[in-house]
Prior knowledge:
Layout (H helix, E strand, L loop, with lengths): L4 E5 L6 H15 L5 E6 L4 H8 L4 E5 L16 H5 L5 E4 L2 H7 L3 H13 L3 E6 L3 H5 L3 H12 L10 E4 L13 H18 L2 H5 L2 E5 L7 H5 L6 E4 L7 H6 L4
Parallel strand pairs: 1-2, 1-8, 2-3, 3-4, 4-5, 5-6, 6-7, 7-8
Helix pairs in contact: 1-2, 5-7, 7-8
Bound molecules: phosphoenolpyruvate.
Amino acid sequence: xxxxxxxxxxxxxxxxxxxxxxxxxxxxxxxxxxxxxxxxxxxxxxxxxxxxxxxxxxxxxxxxxxxxxxxxxxxxxxxxxxxxxxxxxxxxxxxxxxxxxxxxxxxxxxxxxxxxxxxxxxxxxxxxxxxxxxxxxxxxxxxxxxxxxxxxxxxxxxxxxxxxxxxxxxxxxxxxxxxxxxxxxxxxxxxxxxxxxxxxxxxxxxxxxxxxxxxxxxxxxxxxxxxxxxxxxxxxxxxxxxxxxxx
Length: 247
Ligand code: PEP
């Protein structure tokens, strides 16, 4: 039985003061959640948000992780740095990293293997562009992202996948319940082929893309959707409504 997992992605938003204030307000509202809850925050906010979330069920995650242990990688964050603050999750290969910062399936793979080797759960983002969906190549795109991104992973159950159709991120255009279910079921089938069907059944797969307080119930009711990666709505109290989707 997979445990649902709702994670926020703050992207390049919030400050130490506004972030801590939000966590203080969110904490009592999500205290009885039946799902796992995390907020992935900008690296500079990790120490303060870890402090703010102490004693709550909100885990603090990172928005990226570098593959090298240390060295000349200006602007990057290592696993050791994240572990120092007890970080348990790292988003990897978000479409914004792919689009604006040259992230590739190969670098996604390196980051994923490094997170796993350090006991940090990677939230590996996959998803197609609008033109790819319209051209009918969504499955082909996902195949490549999964084949390369998850190469040499030993235990796929230690990974969280976030299926995020790029056309739905930050656009207010959510995939329909049926579109999201159909594509996530495809991802699970593909994981079954790459690893084993039983292993694939254990993988938590989130939907991401304009998920909000209104559409979360319908998405979460789908049999293959185990959670959400939430951008915009994680910057406000709506995040608590999503976390409490089953209440
Ligand atoms: C995201 O950043 O992963 C995301 C899904 O953003 P939004 O919820 O704002 O579409």
